[in-house]
């Protein structure tokens, strides 16, 4: 399903969660928004739509890296002498070789590491767990572990820390409901889905 569909379904799950808790207006809005965002999270894996939104374009970064490498090579050839020239040429060539490994997966991994470091600096477990999720997701194929019960359990634990550390009542329930709504919406329960989700990974490699 498209991202906007997951967003709307997640928002509905959040609103239903708030209604179940008999939450007031402000809490209802918070829970609805939390669930809407959470409903997009499973698509952070490689091939997922959301992974394109949270990272810089890997093609742009790759081109910038190549340009920097070329500049250093030309600078070394024209302005450096002796051993310094060879060192400059080697570094320039190394930078250009580095550009070959810059892809979508690489950018997602770097984003995850950056988020983890931010969480460690801020002292918030939920941010560290978010970064870990993004980093691990960079190695996963689409609709694998992020679309499984393991992914849902991890997100539930992360949202537990989120609610504790932000004191936003109901966000644990809303976030978990939003995440679960994504798995349900991508399942074969709906005939429009050609593929299902492998809920029981790694025990059973079957789409539901």
From TrEMBL:
Lineage, top-rank taxon, reads Bacteria
TM helices/strands, residue ranges: 60-81, 106-124, 144-162
Q: Which UniProt keywords apply?
A: Membrane, Signal, Transmembrane, Transmembrane helix
Asked whether the UniProt record includes Ubl conjugation among its keywords, one would answer no
Signal sequence coordinates: 1-22
What stretch or stretches form a coiled coil here?
none
Q: What's the protein called, per UniProt?
A: Inner membrane protein
Q: Could you tell me which species this protein originates from?
A: Terribacillus aidingensis
């Amino acid at each position: 399903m498209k991202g906007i569909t997951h967003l709307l379904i997640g928002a509905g799950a959040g609103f239903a969660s708030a209604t179940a808790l008999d939450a007031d207006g402000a809490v209802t809005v918070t829970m609805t928004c939390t669930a809407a965002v959470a409903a997009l999270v499973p698509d952070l894996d490689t091939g997922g739509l959301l992974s394109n939104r949270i990272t810089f374009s890997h093609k742009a970064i790759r081109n910038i890296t190549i340009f920097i490498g070329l500049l250093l090579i030309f600078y070394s050839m024209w302005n450096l002498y002796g051993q310094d020239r060879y060192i400059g040429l080697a570094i320039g060539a190394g930078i250009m070789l580095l550009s070959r490994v810059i892809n979508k997966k690489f950018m997602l991994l770097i984003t995850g590491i950056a988020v983890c470091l931010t969480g460690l600096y801020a002292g918030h477990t939920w941010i560290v767990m978010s970064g870990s999720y993004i980093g691990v997701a960079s190695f996963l194929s689409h609709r694998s572990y992020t679309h499984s019960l393991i992914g849902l359990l991890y997100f539930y634990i992360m949202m537990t820390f989120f609610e504790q550390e932000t004191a936003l009542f109901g966000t644990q329930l809303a976030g978990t409901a939003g995440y679960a709504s994504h798995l349900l919406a991508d399942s074969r329960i709906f005939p429009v889905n050609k593929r299902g989700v492998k809920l029981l990974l790694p025990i059973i490699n079957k789409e539901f």
